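R.M. (postdoc): so does anyone remember the format we settled on? I'll just put the structure tokens first.
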């Protein structure tokens, strides 16, 4: 499996323990419904050892473009407009994003793995873990 296998548009089809994660992350409740039912578009390209990951709402309201080298810490811009230190790796078909400080003093670990037309994102922050499940849009 290649890192570009997560390319494309994905729509949230389910979640596990997501509200607890949003609480832990300090996300205001007025944003929860959109996050729980929203769409995401992931575009991945690779040029040599540099990878570019574009994450966007499908309505175009929020977009973040990051170019990085796998395994090297860099300043990752989120679709919330905030920049955080992060390290991204890809191994065994799993894209892993580690953020030592999510802006609230807590470490965030996010993994994305595709199986057919399903993209599963698993997250951990503090004592909370859960999943977002996307279907190919």
């Amino acid at each position: 499996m290649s890192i570009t296998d997560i390319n494309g548009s994905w729509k949230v089809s389910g979640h596990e323990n997501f509200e607890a994660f949003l609480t832990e992350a300090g996300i205001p409740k007025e944003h929860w419904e959109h996050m729980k039912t929203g769409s995401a578009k992931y575009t991945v390209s690779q040029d040599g050892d540099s990878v570019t990951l574009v994450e966007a709402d499908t309505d175009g309201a929020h977009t973040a473009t990051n170019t990085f080298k796998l395994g090297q810490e860099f300043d990752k811009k989120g679709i919330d407009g905030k920049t955080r230190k992060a390290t991204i790796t890809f191994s065994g078909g799993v894209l892993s994003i580690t953020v030592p400080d999510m802006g609230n003093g807590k470490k965030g670990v996010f993994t994305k793995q595709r199986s057919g037309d399903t993209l599963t994102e698993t997250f951990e922050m503090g004592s909370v873990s859960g999943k977002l499940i996307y279907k190919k849009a």
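R.M.: ...and that's the designed sequence above, right after the tokens. Also worth knowing: The mean pLDDT is 88. The domain at 3-136 is CATH 2.40.128.20 (Lipocalin).
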